[in-house]
């Protein structure tokens, strides 16, 4: 069972990393790549890729640390047992950045739909400042995790069965950190913000759609109206998909964390530790699914994204890209002669 779960996570991490890299390439080639929404989506793709890569390394390091490879010497497996907890903490850091990046993107969409008069707030500079604040706050919240691992990890090549999260010897400040950072800041507050803002956006979009359908206009104006309606439908579907993914993939992890806290605070209460461990594995797998699914959501919902992706992957587009790159390279390296000056300035 453990081997199947490990193979599943490895496969999903590889697929998700490739999908997020494709998303990054497609978004960088869009015409509106200098807009705040496009930049935020690129940041989300980078954060998800880093999280999946860290999760992949964590699974592989744990595999080698626990000496599931019989021919691996003990001296080689010990460094993996030392590094693995730090990689796990890095994965937790990137996950928190990803969660709050989704919140920033939702706020950006809320300004577009519900506050059109404040559209000047949507600049790339402000988006970068917001992501910098998110990254800084995430580092502060996840820093105790690195300190906890540094004080002594239970993971070693000889006692991998003891490497479980159900320990009851945590100090009070680590328990407070788990409640505030891992439960409230990581899941509860982002969930409330996403549900409230997304609900208001969807309500606003439905009102605007009904208004555009009732308006009487010419054929050209009707085409513009239909484009606006399709854009709003696509945005609504994206918001619904994002909320469904967040609810389905983040809430199980919150439930597992609450059970762990109860197990630590109330040791006298009997908990099925094996069931909690299995639930923790399922919750971690759902987090990987959430980081992987964004690419597929863009492909299903985003018509423009799907069209640009097909153009990027089409065989006929490769020679054109190569010719464009060769043209740019030759123009950069070509010396400026009198003939070139005459061609550049025909007057």
Describe the protein in words:
With 347 residues, this protein is mainly alpha-helical. It has a single domain, classed as Up-down Bundle (Rhopdopsin 7-helix transmembrane proteins). The chain is built from ten helices and no strands. The chain has helices at 2-28, 36-65, 74-114, 124-150, 172-214, 219-265, 273-301, 303-313, 317-333, 338-344. The longest helix is centred in the last third of the chain and has 47 residues, at 219-265. The radius of gyration is 25 Å and the shape is globular.
Q: Can you give the mean pLDDT?
A: 78
Q: CATH class, anyone?
A: Mainly Alpha
Percentage of residues assigned to helices: over 70%
Low-confidence stretches: 150-159, 332-347
Please tell me the total number of domains. 1
Q: What is the chains' assembly state?
A: single chain
Q: In whole angstroms, how far apart are the ends?
A: 76 Å
Secondary-structure-based class equals mainly alpha
Rg result: 25 Å
Tell me the strand percentage band: under 5%
Q: Based on the structure given, which CATH architecture is correct?
A: Up-down Bundle
Q: Tell me the series of helices and strands, N- to C-terminal.
A: HHHHHHHHHH
């Amino acid at each position: 069972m453990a081997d199947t779960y490990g193979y599943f996570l490895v496969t999903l991490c590889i697929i998700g990393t490739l999908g997020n890299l494709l998303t990054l390439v497609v978004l960088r080639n869009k015409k509106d790549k200098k807009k705040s929404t496009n930049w935020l989506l690129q940041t989300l793709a980078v954060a998800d890729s880093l999280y999946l890569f860290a999760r992949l390394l964590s699974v592989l390091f744990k595999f080698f640390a626990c000496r599931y490879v019989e021919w691996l010497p003990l001296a080689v497996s010990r460094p993996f047992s030392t590094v693995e907890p730090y990689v796990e903490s890095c994965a937790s850091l990137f996950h928190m950045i990803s969660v709050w990046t989704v919140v920033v993107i939702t706020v950006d969409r809320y300004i577009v739909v519900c506050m059109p008069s404040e559209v000047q707030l949507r600049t790339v500079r402000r988006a970068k400042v917001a992501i910098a604040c998110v990254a800084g706050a995430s580092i502060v919240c996840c820093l105790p995790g690195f300190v906890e691992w540094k004080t002594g990890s239970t993971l070693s090549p000889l006692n991998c069965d003891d490497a479980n999260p159900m320990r009851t010897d945590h100090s009070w400040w680590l328990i407070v950190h788990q409640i505030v950072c891992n439960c409230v800041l990581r899941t509860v507050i982002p969930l409330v913000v996403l549900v409230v803002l997304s609900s208001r956006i969807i309500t606003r979009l439905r009102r605007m759609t009904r208004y555009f359908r009732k308006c009487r206009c010419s054929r050209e104006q009707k085409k513009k109206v239909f484009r606006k309606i399709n854009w709003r439908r696509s945005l609504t579907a994206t918001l619904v998909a994002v909320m469904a993914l967040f609810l389905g993939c983040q809430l199980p992890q919150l439930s597992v964390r609450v059970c762990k806290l109860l197990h630590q605070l109330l040791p006298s209460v009997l908990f099925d530790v094996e069931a909690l461990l299995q639930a923790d594995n399922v919750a971690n797998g759902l987090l990987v699914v959430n980081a992987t699914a964004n690419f597929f959501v863009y492909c299903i919902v985003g018509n423009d994204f799907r069209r640009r992706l097909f153009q990027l992957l089409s065989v006929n587009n490769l020679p054109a890209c190569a010719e464009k790159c060769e043209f740019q390279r030759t123009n950069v390296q070509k010396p400026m002669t009198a003939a070139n000056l005459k061609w550049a300035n025909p007057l």
